[in-house]
Amino acid sequence: MKITLLLALLVPTILYASDEASTMAEAESLKRAAQLSQQCLGCHGEFGIAPITTNPNLAGQNAEYLEYALKAYRSGERKGGMAFIMRANANGLSDQDIKDLALYFSAQAGRNSSTEH
């Protein structure tokens, strides 16, 4: 009986602490990604909305795609176009940096009809 009561009290506490730690880790990852994204601003614009129409918007893009693309640039798998610039930028990124950036840009609001003129 005492063990059941103890478990009934401990399990929710442990789960809550785990959720809170996860939320804090996610917040830290987003903070780091916002800092890392500064190197992307010149071509992809603030919050991933490209100021130059020939450059892709990153805002609202699928996170898995962004992660794949950055890793492909970093490895040299992607070539042509501006790949040399992307490779230079991606070379300094760890797998975790890339994952954080992908999640950061995918969470940004993309262009919509009210912002395009």
From TrEMBL:
- Superkingdom assignment: Bacteria
What are the protein's UniProt keywords?
Electron transport, Heme, Iron, Metal-binding, Signal, Transport
- From the UniProt record, which GO molecular function terms apply? electron transfer activity; heme binding; metal ion binding
User: What PROSITE patterns would the database entry show?
Assistant: CYTC (PS51007)
Q: Which residues form the Cytochrome c domain?
A: 22-109
Q: Where is the signal peptide?
A: 1-17
- Entries under SUPFAM superfamilies matching the protein: Cytochrome c
Looking at the Swiss-Prot or TrEMBL record, what is one Pfam family this protein matches?
Answer: Cytochrom_C
Specify the protein name: Cytochrome
UniProt source species = Cognaticolwellia beringensis
